[in-house]
Amino acid sequence: MSAVVKDTAQxxxxxTLGAGTTVWELAQIREDAVLGESCVIGRGAYVGTGVRxxxxxxxxxxxxxxEPATLGDGVFIGPAAVLTNDQYPRSVAPDGALKRAHDWEAxxxxxxxxxxxxARAVCVAPVRVGAWSLVAAGAVVTRDVPQFALVAxxxxxxxxxxxxxxxxxxxxxxxxxxxPSTGETYTEADGVLTLG
Length: 196
Known about the structure:
Structural class: mainly beta
CATH class of the largest domain: Mainly Beta
Helix content: under 10%
Number of strands: 26
CATH architecture of the largest domain: 3 Solenoid
Shape: globular
């Protein structure tokens, strides 16, 4: 099954789209971006130059993923969420000259397998969002997010844990967390949560 690109989408010739990937109207996929299999790129979404996206990822409408971001398999980026790439954003240099590509260093956001970033959330690079974590809608992530963490707020802080189903975990014994949806159990030690 080949990729499907809607008529008004822009996909650079040097971009790679995996089998079964769909790019919807007005989306833009820049040069040398690599998208895995069975991805869905929503209307008006943007994927920057050289961005790497795993298999079965979803970028909802108007999500902006700037280079050099990397997304693991099964990542969800909500509507109008932004993954930034400029640690010190300025339009002009101190002398007032317009900044060009060589005047700054792009830094990326890394999103781990199965993680989700909610609608209108912002991940401020450089930052890593751990596997299976959940960034709440409207949150601003300014530091790394542990795997399975549920973070919310401005700046985002951990307010709980989620399992692979994305459901908030319940503490069933000290240091033991259970998913009410799947029954999977997780162990917490020193601020780190692991499955099993």
